[in-house]
């Protein structure tokens, strides 16, 4: 029953956020400031994680393709895996760990210090002023970081295959887009947009409703990362099946 009650409260909170998104007011300056902060904080971690994954994928894929004499297929494997799954998922995990946890901590601290209550006493809509800009910021930042991660992953695969393993750069580049198309790029952007919205809603819900002092803020931060990752990884399967399931 407690779980169902929590889901219901989250649904009501999400509905309040959606209503503010439709009718305003919109605090766009705060939205872009939060978005810029998240992108700055997460760019290096995303590159540092996705780039080595691209290198490892290239290394392992090359070892397998050597068994069948299909070296030229390596670039296609890397591009499909990075654009469809690797970069969207890893970038979103890092956004949840960095941006989502940060927003949960900020709102939780404001709730504990009664700053959110003071905002509403002054006649300012707390959800519109504090929550909506943060949700929009993560919704925008996640696809941007996915693009950065995609470039990093492809670069990592190229480095291992061409520089370290001596594959032909021309063949690698010509085969890079053999099995990929606009749907792979746009699909990754769509997925990360949805993931960013999920992370933003979970983070702001946890922070906005934090209780129990500093320990409560810590729980809100931890729950933000755990729940948002669980939700968007589950959603990832559904979205991948809908976008790419018929492509083979």
- N→C terminal distance: 41 Å
Model regions low in confidence, pLDDT < 50 over at least 5 residues = none
The string of secondary-structure elements, in order, is HHHHHHHH
Structural class: mainly alpha
Shape from CA axes? elongated
Gyration radius, rounded = 21 Å
Based on the model shown, name its key terms:
single chain, 248 residues, mainly alpha, 8 helices, 0% strand
What would you note in describing this structure?
The protein is an all-alpha fold. It has one domain. The chain has eight helices and no strands. The protein has helices spanning 2-23, 28-68, 74-112, 115-121, 126-164, 169-175, 182-208, 213-244. α3 (74-112) runs antiparallel to α5 and α7 runs antiparallel to α8. The mean pLDDT is 88.
Topology (elements, then pairings):
Layout: H1 2-23, H2 28-68, H3 74-112, H4 115-121, H5 126-164, H6 169-175, H7 182-208, H8 213-244
Summed up:
The mean pLDDT is 88. The chain has helices at residues 2-23, 28-68, 74-112, 115-121, 126-164, 169-175, 182-208, 213-244. With 248 residues, it is an all-alpha fold.
């Amino acid at each position: 029953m407690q779980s169902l009650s929590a889901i219901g409260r989250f649904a009501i909170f999400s509905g309040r956020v959606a209503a503010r998104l439709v009718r305003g007011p919109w605090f766009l300056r705060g939205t872009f400031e939060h978005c810029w902060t998240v992108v700055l904080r997460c760019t290096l971690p995303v590159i540092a994680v996705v780039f080595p994954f691209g290198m490892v994928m290239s290394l392992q894929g090359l070892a397998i393709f050597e068994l069948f004499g299909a070296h030229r297929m390596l670039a296609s494997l890397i591009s499909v895996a990075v654009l469809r799954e690797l970069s969207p998922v890893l970038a979103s995990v890092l956004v949840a760990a960095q941006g989502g946890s940060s927003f949960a901590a900020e709102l939780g601290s404001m709730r504990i210090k009664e700053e959110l209550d003071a905002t509403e006493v002054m006649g300012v809509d707390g959800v519109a002023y504090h929550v909506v800009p943060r949700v929009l910021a993560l919704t925008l930042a996640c696809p941007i970081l996915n693009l950065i991660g995609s470039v990093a992953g492809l670069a990592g695969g190229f480095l291992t295959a061409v520089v370290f393993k001596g594959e032909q750069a021309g063949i690698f580049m010509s085969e890079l887009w053999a099995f990929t198309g606009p749907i792979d790029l746009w699909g990754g952007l769509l997925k990360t947009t949805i993931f960013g919205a999920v992370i933003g809603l979970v983070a702001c819900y946890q922070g906005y409703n934090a209780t129990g002092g500093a320990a409560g803020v810590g729980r809100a931060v931890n729950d933000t990362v755990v729940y948002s990752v669980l939700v968007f990884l589950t959603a990832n399967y559904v979205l991948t099946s809908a976008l790419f399931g018929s492509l083979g």
